[in-house]
Amino acid sequence: MKKYALIVAGGKGLRMGAEIPKQFLLLQGKPVLMHTIEAFANISDIHIVLVLPQSQMSYWQELITKYTFTIPHTLVSGGDTRFQSVKNGLSTVSEGMVAIHDGVRPIVSQELLNNAYDTCHQKGNAVLAVRLKDSIREIDLLGNKNVNRNNYYLIQTPQVFHSSEIKAAYDVAEHDNFTDDASVLESAGAKIHLVEGAYSNIKITTPEDLAMAEVLMK
User: What angle do CA 63, 65, 68 make, to 5 degrees?
Assistant: First the structure.
């Protein structure tokens, strides 16, 4: 079955306090986004689709030249929201399995990727998740209360789907309840299958995350 990687990188990096979007910040001497794409490049016959805001495409082309980045990928213009950006990217995907991944999660291992694709092939979809480490409390109008952390998971990417199913699920109006791609498919009636993720599979959104990624990649 044909495999796609749909990498979405539309962030502005406001929490980074940096002058450039977080996907272009340097990690181990090259942009974060290049590490993310490289994580998928070792998958046999993978088709990589990169979704970027139109305003960032020329800068990305400059970086490709500067860092002699040669991994083939299809560049797609993003929308005003992540939902719209994913929908735009999915329009370029044909029949197969598609892994939708955050452009600022550069430390996803080959083992995690293979397991996610395999689970999707067997069960219809696969969503990476890790157990909570800390205690959590639920806040309501009356105050707050302790809840059992074993009943909750932190969701990561990639999230892998059969392309026909996720494209059909995205053929709806955007909704506030769509917090990730799995929630879009779930709203269409599908059962979501969780796959063990990794605590090292961090999403870089703050300076502390970038410093942690530097340590992990060493």
Answer: 100
Locate the domains of the chain by residue range.
3-217
What CATH code would you report for 3-217?
3.90.550.10
State pLDDT tens for residues 86-134.
999 999 999 999 999 999 999 999 999 999 999 999 999 999 999 999 9
Whole-prediction pTM: 0.95
CB 158 within 8 A of CB 150: no
The identity of residue 212, as a single letter, is M
- 177: Cβ contacts below 8 Å, ≥ 6 apart: 183, 187
User: Can you count the helices (H) and strands (E) in the chain?
Assistant: 7, 11
Tens of pLDDT, residue by residue over 181-205, are 999 999 999 999 999 999 999 999 9
Whole-angstrom distance, CA of residue 96 vs CA of residue 183: 20
How many alpha carbons lie under 13 Å from residue 41 in its C-beta half-sphere?
14
Yes or no: say if 182 and 125 are a contact pair by the CB < 8 Å rule.
yes
